[in-house]
Amino acid sequence: MKPTIQAFFDECTNTISYVVFDELQGHCAVIDSVLNYNAKSGKISTTSADYIIKFIQEHQLTLDWILETHVHADHLSASQYIKKIVGGKIAISKHITKVQKIFKHVFNFGKEFSQDGSQFDYLFDDEEIFNIGRISGQTLFIGGGHTPADIAYKIADCVFVGDTIFMPDVGTARCDFVGGDAGKLYDGIQKILALPDETKLFMCHDYPQNRDVQWEVSVLEQKIKNIHVNNTINKQKFIALRQEKDNNLEVPALIYPAIQVNVCAGKLPEPEDNQIRYLKMPLNI
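Request: output the structure for the sequence above.
Response:
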């Protein structure tokens, strides 16, 4: 059973979110939602998430899952907001605990911060089967490259790859975050590229140069054309290429706001005694 897919592009963060649904039974999942955050003003808005919610409501869909491919460092997740309006279970890889342990120290979270993933409604095992209505999905653990908790979601003949591989002319995700590893990213991508050539891959981001935004490509096209992981590039060459590129990348503008919210399943910090919420900004790390 093949899903119907609707993509939503957030221009500010170059993120593509998806609603994946069983058109006959009306069950759906949301993948990698965006909560809009203005770093200059500190203001949060729900514009991107509202487009998704409107689509779900207009198509009279039942939201089963709010899926995260990993702890994003470039945008805040809208998972809590979407769940509040239209329901659904917020889910991520069970390896989220590794990321939480790293960032508990970075943000000096207090004793109340659990490092067992309990902020999420559900933690997926590696290669776990799940369902969206009549449509069967499976998690593919590809962690340890971009972050220790990366998973892709294989739904019928479609794979939502998160921050692993990008469109062929863009290449692959960075590996210089804490816990990242270029060799592990290569291995994770090879798991994706071992799927049948006609498998459709759906990107989490696109950074086009001199073309329109795109988010869908076949496994075969990636194997032939991807500038970082095509058939002519072995693991050793990829590691060297990726490390050289990462050494010249700037830190994502929203990395600190995004991570401290996203390790908590999109929950914003509780208001302090003046009823104002605050995000932490660690210095000199």
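The longest strand covers residues 15-22.
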